[in-house]
Amino acid sequence: MKLLATGAAGFIGANFVHYTMRNHPEYEVVVLDALTYAGNRESLKPVENEIEFVQGDICDAALVDRLVAECDTVVHFAAESHVDNSLHDPAPFVQTNLIGTYTILEAIRNHGARLHHISTDEVFGDLDLEGDDQFTEQTPYDPSSPYSATKAGSDLLVRAWARSFGIHATISNCANNYGPYQHVEKFIPRQITNVFTGARPKLYGQGENVREWTHVDDHNEAVHLILSKGAPGETYLIGSGDERNNKAILELTLELLGEPADAYDHVPDRPGHDLRYSNDSTKIRTQLGWEPKYGDFRAGLQATIDWYRENEWWWGPQKAATEARYSQLGR
Ligand code: NAD
Ligand code: TDX
């Protein structure tokens, strides 16, 4: 079984390749990644002799067509993934998330490989801070940012290609991920590495916004369950059920790092900042038997802090440029 993983020099895709090598040796893995600012070949170093790596753009139709023709399965992680960047410059989001996904769909249509498309809870918009509403597979799309709008558009392209052209495709919409190899632009690694570099952590607004934190290995286990047992044309929501607001996450991070609970700065809020996400993951739990293994968020966060402490060689080279981008945004 030959599996093409797009965007797997990024956070979730790299962890997917590691997870696949550990748990699913039946797959031969090819990675296609453009190595944008967010991609890092070092994230695949532990498995570099076990996989094939192709540096290239998912918008390159000839390249994508050739690679898809040789594969049985495509797992499509590649995307521009950071909301703040999309507010600053939406162009690469439209290109990669929409045109790139279209390019993959056309290659799938030509060659008949099976596609799993990785998406996000952000396509549904947000929920009230008060109350216990949740997104389900039936929730209408209502994205807020250029990032989530282009992810929503990519999901709709996949659905249309499945219905109109009969491609074998599945979609998953996962909540916020955390774990090793996450770019230091994202919330949790940014705060950990700020402390390690002597900078103060940065909280947007009052930090009341709520996210549902899911360990990246739990996400990737869900993806493998969908690959082996998911039904064509179906969408699955994935989430740990562990909802916390940003202030609480930051205070817990500071506590685990041995820092005072108030040792951070409030910075201007993100425009259009989604208030709360929460996925009802009953479908994947009951139909496919998925259950998160990282039930203890505190332990998962501690392990993540330890990973960043031990792997400055990995994140150190990205840190200064990332903070320079944040300075431009005033955050
Ligand atoms: P990431 O930014 O860490 O990695 C994205 C990868 O895609 C990088 O390696 C980059 O080089 C590559 N890439 C970007 N444009 C490309 C192009 N045109 N051609 C080829 N490769 C390209 O992102 P991530 O956090 O690992 O997210 C992976 C996927 O999961 C995305 O589709 C994202 O929308 C989705 N997702 C992320 C989260 C999260 O919490 N991070 C949650 C739910 C869903
Ligand atoms: O310095 C910060 N301070 C802060 O308060 C940063 C970087 C973020 N935040 C807040 C904004 C969000 O409410 O923390 C929360 C999480 O921020 P991000 O890590 O940027 O994630 P989010 O915007 O929630 O989106 C993430 O989850 C869904 C991923 O980046 C997306 O790719 C995924 O689709």
TrEMBL record:
Pfam families: GDP_Man_Dehyd (PF16363). This is dTDP-glucose 4,6-dehydratase. It is an enzyme of class 4 (lyase). It catalyses: dTDP-alpha-D-glucose = dTDP-4-dehydro-6-deoxy-alpha-D-glucose + H2O. Its cofactor is NAD(+). CDD domains: dTDP_GD_SDR_e. InterPro entries: dTDP_Gluc_deHydtase (IPR005888), NAD(P)-bd_dom (IPR016040), NAD(P)-bd_dom_sf (IPR036291). The gene is rfbB. Belongs to the NAD(P)-dependent epimerase/dehydratase family. dTDP-glucose dehydratase subfamily. Residues 4-295 form the NAD(P)-binding domain. SUPFAM superfamilies: NAD(P)-binding Rossmann-fold domains. Its EC number is 4.2.1.46.
